[in-house]
UniProtKB/TrEMBL annotation:
Residues 27-54 are annotated as: Disordered. This is Uncharacterized protein.
Length: 54
């Protein structure tokens, strides 16, 4: 009976740590996708006037 609370505490800590890692991974992936999309959009805007001049 004395070992129940330390085990529950450890499992809770590990579960919350995994949750934070999962949320951080998703957030970082979304940030990278948006950054890539913005980079492509700005690159497309820069090259369009050059194509119009040609």
């Amino acid at each position: 009976m004395m070992m129940v609370w330390p085990v529950v505490t450890l499992l809770g800590f590990l579960l919350l740590t995994a949750l934070v890692i999962a949320m951080g991974t998703q957030s970082t992936a979304r940030y990278e996708r948006e950054k890539r999309a913005a980079s492509r959009a700005s690159a497309g805007r820069k090259s369009a006037p050059e194509a119009a001049r040609a």
